[in-house]
Amino acid sequence: MKKTSSLSELGFSDAATTAFFRQIKDVAASSSAAAGDADAPSQPNHRIKISIVGAGNVGMAIAQTILTQDLADEIALVDAKPEKLRGEMLDLQHAAAFLPRVRIVSGTYYAVTAGSDLAIVTAGARQLPGETRLDLLHRNVALFRTVVPPLAQHSPDALLLVVSNPVDVLTYVAWKLSGFPPNRLSGFPPNRVIGSGTNLDSSRFRSLLADHLEVNAQDVQAYMVGEHGDSSVALWSSISIGGVPMLSSLRESDVEFEQAVLERIRKAVVGSAYEVIRLKGYTSWAIGYSVASLARSLLRNQHRIHPISLLASGFHGIPDDREVFLSLPAVLGRSGVIRIPSVQLTEEEGKRLRKSAQTLWEIQQQLGLAN
Hints:
alpha/beta; 40% helix; oxidoreductase; EC 1.1.1.27; Lactate_DH/Glyco_Ohase_4_C
């Protein structure tokens, strides 16, 4: 009996992929061709380089997690504070005997990032007393003007991952500034510029559900989408536990639940970060592991699905002409965003997602970055 190696040989239509997935908007044919090459496994002798901009609590948690998970052959750290930067580099280098062999370099200049496969931006200005959120955002845009163009210039084939908050708007800013020289907008194709988005929010969501149901969080399929922030949307309609749809199972079992209860759970997920900040002053380890999981999926071409901030124009009723970045589940690989699953939203979920997109769009219009 002949051994079957694929579903195609069994008659499963190759067109099924288009039913499940869509491609991100405005990825040019040339970019798609390049993405096809990039999706091939890395050459055996290729050394993976990851650069991290910002050596604060978040940046160093990401560096430490990437280091211990053996995701890179070289890590480059960039920060504006040379003494702190050198101290962080030396502290990691001194652990060399206990870790995989990784070259660790640092500098206040971006030439140290040259040849990066993945550039991670965690740098961001802190809010000053009495400063409005919009004024803070304008200062972060000014900061990104000094960060993103040199990163793109020294690593024109890199994937760009933004972690700085507000992550959705700053991912849009990074995409717009990824051309070089700095006055050339939209240099990188949108599939290669992503934000950490709601990847961590979704992990918190899954953890909360798993704890209550007494199962492993890896057996819970649940997503938070939209803005990484107060207007995020919990996709209750698509939650499954070990393959069992949650809400429909509850209905069939006559287990009562109210929308107000679901909304309180969503708010608890959003507020969990604030609780950590209240207790220890900042968040670091969870975002470190979250970003490391994204790095693994991207650089090892795993085609795993993560909810990340991406160019969402044309999805779920968001107008095609609105270049908004917000979180949706996406298949990630060596070329960045490969495909976006066609998740079915309820009318209410779609309405909330579009409202989230409108909020982000209105903020972006005040930044003066539109073409």
